[in-house]
From TrEMBL:
Lineage start: Bacteria, Bacillati, Bacillota, Bacilli, Bacillales
One annotated GO molecular function: metal ion binding
Gene3D superfamilies: 1.20.1370.20, 3.40.50.880, Catalase core domain (2.40.180.10)
GO BP terms, alphabetized: hydrogen peroxide catabolic process; response to oxidative stress
Protein name stated in the entry: Catalase
Cross-link entry 3'-histidyl-3-tyrosine (His-Tyr), positions: H333-Y356
Family named by the database record: Belongs to the catalase family. HPII subfamily.
Role: Decomposes hydrogen peroxide into water and oxygen; serves to protect cells from the toxic effects of hydrogen peroxide.
EC annotation from Swiss-Prot or TrEMBL: 1.11.1.6
Record-listed heme binding positions: R66, R106, F155, R352, Y356, R363
Length: 664
């Protein structure tokens, strides 16, 4: 079932077909170049209804952007479960392996505005709308499994702290400033999330190459009423890969749309994007068997303790037709659930159940945002809600209340046997308090767990990221507080390194977290690696033979690699088109680079690109039609990851597949 073609078609205006221009009321327009005037040089007349309609619509084209997750990119697809999950849940779309459920996914950054860059150091939103036969289900998540805070009442404080500082609106889409790190130092529940934010997870190579998480603990409830706690995961089939920080900054300068372009172009080429849905499941009776509180959103469930079961696959395969109508107007809400999926008492989740509806009311102009085509369920819906801004339905009948006799009490509630939603019958008791459970007060053990799980180069990246971020803080008290109240309670080596780098006071050594556990699942070392959709920039001197170009292209494309030829000008070499120049692209935009040299000297721009690719630990290949290349390469020819592709293309491909030459 294709949601986009079948269910949005009636709302589609196809401007690719011939049509006469009309007003929004359908009146044909004979002139759209000039406003109605009193004489050719006279004033515009108020009666020019076409001008007023056109200008009024233009004046109101922009709606408020999201406060967070403003910069996003959406894509359509479908989800299919591998086998029935009826032992856990009565959700229909998770019980029928033959059913393909339409989905819409919106990826996003969190802190920046809609016009910010694609690769800041930031959390990424990963939200999925399932258009099920029982109603829309929204899995509203991130690419990191934990969050900064434990209670939703602190969410405005977090966002105010990470956003540009209010006195000067600086910096955009960055956490590297005083107010954010002041917040962290005073709210140490953020310690674990900070480890993730300073890791390579915060600068993904592609939206197609990052994991997704539901973050919260939810419930699955089966037909017998049995409850299991669950955490949701999305595992990318291409694996989780990253750029390095210096590279990210250069990419943001070379192509601010790097992530969205990568996603759009791959789907446009027919490269479907695949994620597997994974579940971590704990029986409700085991709620207190962990060494942490399973309802704490700043904690993971280590996969060694609670394995991830891969239960289905999501295939993203269709770009949007209209960014605004689909990606910008899509409204997600963690409270959009279906029978068989329910909530836990995670205090951050509980607050989100209010916040999201409230947000849509202001962004999308009132309570009828569910009628916007991208938000409309595929199943029928009926209730007694009426009128309001942007009402698009025409509802027949005399009654708009429950109960009624005039309309035979229609629409009437559905019983659980008829698919009506039933909240899990959880026993709740206690005094009304503003307090936090004692079981939420360990802020540092899992921060240490994350650090313990990293490879050496991943740790170094985190240490350097912390140094960069705190180095951007102008207030020395903020730097000192982060070191003493957060880093020093996680790891002494990290604290000493960062203190020296940022010129801060080294706090007294205390007993840091003694949590020695590690989890292989947290390191990116164990992620899948593939050559499919990898990109190689092939830099050529103008005299390289057509035969060499064709052989090189064939050599890589048969492995699913995308090849771009780069020279000093756009040109044809026989039948081969060189479509990129050193003015339009750069080595930072490719996964690997190759240089092909003829008799002519290597361009200075090519040498610069090679040096930067070497610095970023990318695979580098070379080939020579004529002459000698070793004298101009800005690194030794026998360095790791530098390969003669004419003699050992398999080694080069292995290096590309491995993503980086970390031990170079």
């Amino acid at each position: 079932m294709n949601r986009k073609k079948e269910d949005l078609q009636k709302n589609t205006i196809d401007n690719t077909k011939k049509a006469k221009m009309t007003t929004n009321q359908g009146l044909p327009i004979s002139e759209d170049e000039f406003s109605l005037k009193a004489g050719e040089r006279g004033p515009t007349l108020m009666e020019d209804f076409h001008f007023r309609e056109k200008m009024t619509h233009f004046d109101h084209e922009r709606i408020p952007e999201r406060v967070v997750h403003a910069r996003g990119f959406g894509v359509h697809g479908e989800f299919q479960v591998y086998e029935s999950l009826e032992k856990y849940t009565k959700a229909d779309f998770l019980n029928d392996p033959s059913k393909k459920t339409p989905v819409f996914v919106r990826f996003s950054t969190v802190a920046g505005n809609r016009g910010s860059m694609d690769i800041p150091r930031d959390v990424r939103g990963f939200s999925t709308k399932f258009y099920t036969d029982e109603g829309n289900y929204d899995l509203v998540g991130n690419n990191m499994p934990v969050f900064f805070i434990q209670d939703a009442i602190k969410f405005p404080d977090l966002v105010h702290a990470v956003k540009p500082e209010p006195h000067n609106e600086i910096p955009q889409a960055a956490s590297a400033h005083d107010t954010f790190w002041d917040f962290v130092s005073q709210n140490t529940e953020s310690a674990h999330m900070i480890m993730w934010l300073m890791s390579d997870r915060a600068i993904p190579r592609s939206l197609r190459m990052m994991e997704g998480f539901g973050v919260h603990t939810f419930r699955l409830v089966n037909k017998e009423g049995k409850s299991h706690f669950v955490k949701f995961h999305w595992k990318p089939k291409l694996g989780a890969h990253q750029v390095v920080w210096d590279e990210a900054q250069l990419i943001n300068g070379k192509d601010i749309d790097f992530h969205r372009r990568d996603l759009w172009e791959n789907i446009d080429k027919g490269n479907a994007v695949e994620f597997e849905l994974g579940l971590q499941v704990i029986p409700e009776e085991d709620e207190f068997n962990m060494d942490f509180d399973v309802l704490d959103p700043t904690k993971i469930w280590p996969e060694e303790d609670v394995p991830v079961q891969l239960v289905g696959k999501m295939t993203l395969n269709q770009n949007v037709d209209d960014y605004f109508a689909e990606t910008e107007q899509v409204a997600f809400h963690p409270g959009h659930v279906v029978p068989g999926i329910d909530f836990s008492n995670d205090p951050l989740l509980q607050g989100r159940l209010f916040s999201y509806t409230d947000t849509q009311l202001i962004r999308l102009g009132g309570p009828n945002f569910h009628q916007i085509p991208i938000n409309r369920p595929v199943c029928p819906f009926a209730n007694n809600q009426r009128e309001g801004y942007n009402q698009m339905n025409i509802t027949k009948g005399q009654t708009s209340y429950h109960k009624n006799a005039l309309n035979d009490n229609q629409p009437e509630p559905a019983s659980p046997e008829e698919g009506g939603f039933e909240h899990y019958n959880e026993k709740v008791e206690g005094r009304k308090v503003r307090a936090r459970s004692e079981s939420f007060k360990d802020h540092f053990s899992q921060a240490k767990l994350f650090l313990n799980s990293m490879q050496q180069h991943e740790k170094q990246h985190m240490f350097d990221a912390l140094s960069f971020e705190l180095g951007k803080c102008k207030n020395m008290e903020v730097r000192n507080n982060v070191l003493s109240e957060v880093l020093n309670k996680i790891d002494r080596e990290m604290t000493e390194y960062v203190a020296e780098k940022v010129g801060a006071e080294l706090p007294e050594q205390i007993e840091e977290s003694t949590y020695e556990k590690s989890s292989q699942a947290l390191s990116m070392k164990n992620t899948p690696a593939s050559l499919e959709t990898r990109t190689i920039g092939v830099m050529i001197t103008p005299d390289v033979a057509e035969k060499t170009l064709k052989e090189t292209k064939d050599k890589f494309e048969k492995h699913g690699i995308d090849v771009s030829f780069i020279s000093d000008k756009i040109q044809s070499v026989g039948d081969v088109r060189v479509e990129e120049t050193f003015d339009t692209v750069h080595s930072v935009l490719f996964d690997a680079v190759v240089v092909l040299k003829g008799k002519e000297p290597l361009q200075p721009e090519a040498i610069e690109n090679l040096a930067i690719a070497f610095k970023h630990k990318k695979a580098i290949g070379y080939g020579v039609d004529e002459g000698n290349i070793s004298e101009v390469l800005p690194f030794p020819m026998d360095a790791k990851g530098v390969t003669n592709i004419e003699k050992n293309v398999d080694q080069f491909l292995q290096d590309v597949k491995g993503h980086r030459i970390w031990d170079r």
